[in-house]
Specification:
Isocitrate/isopropylmalate dehydrogenase, oxidoreductase activity, Isopropylmalate Dehydrogenase, two-stranded antiparallel ribbon, alpha/beta, 2 domains, metal-binding, ten-stranded mixed beta sheet, about 375 residues, ICDH/IPMDH, oxidoreductase
Length: about 375
Amino acid sequence: MAPVIGLAIGRGTGAELAAVFERVLARLGQLYATEIDVTRSPRIYHSYSSLRREGGIERIRRLTQEDAEHYELFCRTQARHGVPAIFRTAINAQSLYLVRQRLQAVKVDVIAHQDTSLLLVRDEAQGFYTGENSHSPGTVTRTMSFSREITEKVVSFALRRARQEWPDRGIGQVLMAYKFHLLDGALDEWVAEISERHGTPIRLCQPDTVNRNLIERDPPERTVIIAGNEWADIMHVVLLDRFGSERQESRCTENIHLRAEVAGLTEYQTVHGSADDLEGRDAVNPVATVRAAAAIAERHAGCAGAVRAVERALRSVAERGIRTADLGGRHTTTAVVDALLDVLEPAEPDHTPLTGRTVAAEP
């Protein structure tokens, strides 16, 4: 039976990147003699820019809720049918975070370069990025929460994932970057209890403290940073630039759902947004989408070696100067993908942890 992969498409450049994803996934399936089926969500989800074009606040609120409800149902349905992964292009953050709150999601990225290795686990299930809005004349009130249960789930997941990434060498340190001074000491108590229960030291830090330490010195190898999105959303691209020699336009990442009903379903996305200003121009950088297709093919569709094959092809294309304008090139999205598919060949799998490998495709 052919593996099935979910596909959810947002507005902006979503349709163009979905086409890139399907082309690369299909080619990898051919190379590895594996038929891969794709099931699309029937709804095209809004970006923030497309919502703004729809009109006033009440209409935006309604469409935001409709997108969230539809995408949540799509995720739950795929999980129920045993679909292991979904590739999603960028959609409106407010809709997305409603789903992440309900499905208790974390975003995972291993940022590795030379002697630095960071596991960043972004807590997407609680905090300011989650919650509900209520409106009164001239005022928006946002209500959100933190809970011991969700904090325990996020930390437990992060420790498990770190041990999978570094099975032989162990964890160097565990930091939590949260604005805990605003929570009456509750988060301090929860983290202390969790740390003792797991037998692992965990330092709960203010975000500015983490930033200061990162400026003063590189973190120890195999550092785990568990962070609320209030800090991690901003710092993710900074960490990529400083410790991974990467730009967000070329990076994909994964979201893991911790709620039991959808456990086992992984959502892949580009780190960059919907790029509505590039819609229809055949100009969006396809590298992050290409990498997502490779990761999904290797991890969820039996194409062992797909990641190494794609990284080798990306390097070949970059060395020939074939790149989109954001990387200083003059090629279209289609031209970059065509060139990549022309040189893409099977490769043996790399047995180092997949999320920890990055081969730069940029000059």
